[in-house]
Amino acid sequence: MNNAKNMFPTEELQRRNAAHHVQPFSANTELGKKGARVISNAEGVFITDTDGNQLLDAMAGLWCVNIGYGRKELADVAARQMSELPYYNTFFRTTHLPVIELSERLARLAPDDLNHVFYGSSGSEANDTNIRLVRQYWALKGKPSKQVIISRRNAYHGSTMGGASLGGMTYMHSQGGLPIPDIHHIEQPDWWSCGGAQTPEEFGKSTAKKLEDAIDFLGENRVAAFIAEPIQGAGGVIVPPATYWPEIQRICDDHEILMIVDEVICGFGRTGNWFGSQTLDIRPDIMTIAKGLSSGYQPIAGSIISDAVADVIGMDEFNHGYTYSSHPVAAAVANENVRILEEEGIVENVRKTIAPYLKDKWLTLADHPMVGEAKVVGMMGSVALTPNKDTRAPFNGEAGKVGLICREHCFEANLIMRAVGDRMVISPPLIISEEEIDLLLERASIALDKTFAYVKLHGLM
Ligand code: PXG
Predict the structure, then answer these.
(1) Position 62 pLDDT exceeds 90
(2) By C-alpha distance, which of 290, 246, 349 is closest to 127?
(3) How far apart are CA 167 and CA 5, in angstroms?
(4) What does the pLDDT look like over 330-361, one tens digit per residue?
(5) Which residues are CB-neighbours of 34 under 8 A, at least 6 positions away?
(6) Are strands 258-262 and 114-120 parallel, antiparallel or unpaired?
(7) How far apart are CA 378 and CA 383, in angstroms?
């Protein structure tokens, strides 16, 4: 069946797509042969493809459509802004109302003294900005040797040279000569995969201590900053043990280094507060924002910086900026998105009502014979698939194979869930209803059962 708005058969669109479109994170030759799923429209938490399938999007696009699809207010604001002022730069002593309003709103919502915003169009760009920002900060403070940024293995901070270098994905580093110099990676707080015989509490603390070890090893006079997500998203929704962040905060307080908290996924209500830093009681000097800032309706991102950092950076010309920094249409749409999140009480509703409901349901998945741990904070959750819950063993064969099989079964059940290795993750729109959560769980259970049957049949246990 074809969607009414789509005049072309799916196969034709797939063929034309494969002929000229190179897709991210894809083996394009293979994808071209198989044919990409063509998405035609979306409403609420559902997306529709050109074959007429309605899929429950438990990933909110790519962790970003926080207010859900189909909010006409955002389209109206974009249209109005495009007719008034579609573009102007902010490089040469000029500014405009949308960016003034958005910056004020963000300063009000961001914790403590995080009151100043530098904009880009993507989380990757914002993290590239952060690299230059913290190095320039220390140079202006008369400590130019403080250049090294400490990050974590299996972190995701973007796909640009800087962003991918900060990230700890080795399969990304192996392409294109990464990481760039002066990026140092330490262990991630993933107890399930890396915790060994330690309790989660012991592991949380000892893993946090690796930051102090790295500062000692590198020399405090060389370290500019530590960067981390409150909860690793693309790494598999890795919820750190409760002992982790307090120890990291102590180490950052005890040492002269800046703390960059990457809120690209955790920001704008995902964890039940405006920012993950608030949920996990972290005090950043800089926060990276993107995704939920505009709910993905426009490409916009930024670095929110503290008064102290802004004062120092302001002392000299910062030779950095993008053509689309502070883009008026993107800023106007982001402002409207955040207004809706605020005025409709969406973040509060997540914290008080819908996240507790999701948690109750999601944690029941741990009863499934193939699910080791089930984790959820706010509206982001994961399950670790395993053949043995007690030993936390991986499956026989290639890591990640079972995750991909499960993802395919999710598609068949009209559910979009992402696989990260052998973890299945969700991050649904924040406006998802209780009935839609029930449907999500129903479909996830079907997919898990089918995957379990496949795994047993093919000797992967
Ligand atoms: N930081 C974090 C924490 C992210 O999750 C970025 C930075 C980069 O943002 P941009 O806008 O440059 O993509 C991200 C992006 C996945 C996946 O497969 C996740 C992201 C991007 C692409 C794929 O989970 N996160």
Answers:
(1) yes
(2) 290
(3) 40
(4) 999 999 999 999 999 999 999 999 999 999 99
(5) none
(6) unpaired
(7) 15
CA distance 420 to 235: 7
309 and 383, same domain (yes or no): no
24 within a domain of the structure (yes/no) = no
Q: Is the CB of 124 under 6 A from ligand 1?
A: yes
Taking CA atoms, 435 is separated from 377, 418, 440, in Å, by 19, 21, 9
DSSP assignments along 130-198, one per residue? HHHHHHHHHHHTT-TT--EEEEETT----SSHHHHHHS--HHHHTTTT-SPSSEEEE----HHHH-TTS
Residue with CA closest to ligand 1 atom 15: 158
For 295: left if phi > 0, alpha if psi spans -120 to 50, otherwise beta; the answer is left
Mutate to test the pocket of ligand 1, among 23, 25, 26, 63 (most ligand atoms within 8 A of CB): 63
pLDDT of 245-263, one tens digit each? 999 999 999 999 999 999 9
Peptide bond into 299 cis (omega under 30): no
| Cα gap 379→231, rounded to integer Å | 12
**CATH classification of the domain holding 188:** 3.40.640.10
Examine the domain organization and report whether 292 and 365 are in the same domain: no
Among 226, 199, 224, residue whose Cα is nearest residue 211: 226
Contacts of 337 (CB under 8 A, 6+ apart): 66, 67, 71, 74, 293, 294, 295, 297
Residue 264 near ligand 1, beta carbon < 6 Å:
yes
Is there a domain that residue 5 lies in?
Answer: no
Structure tokens given for 405: 């099989």
Q: Which domain holds residue 378?
A: 37-70+346-457
CB 122 near ligand 1, within 6 Å: yes
**Atom number, ligand 1, closest to the C-alpha of residue 262:** 3
Could you tell me if the CB of 156 is within 6 A of ligand 1? yes
Distance of CA 215 to the CA centre of its chain: 26
Counting ligand 1 atoms within 8 A of each CB, the residue from 156, 260, 261 with the most, and so the one to mutate, is: 156
pTM of the model: 0.97
* 189 shares a domain with 113: yes
**pLDDT per residue as tens digits for the range 73-117:** 999 999 999 999 999 999 999 999 999 999 999 999 999 999 999
Q: How far apart are CA 438 and CA 362, in angstroms?
A: 10
Our count of domains for the chain comes to 2
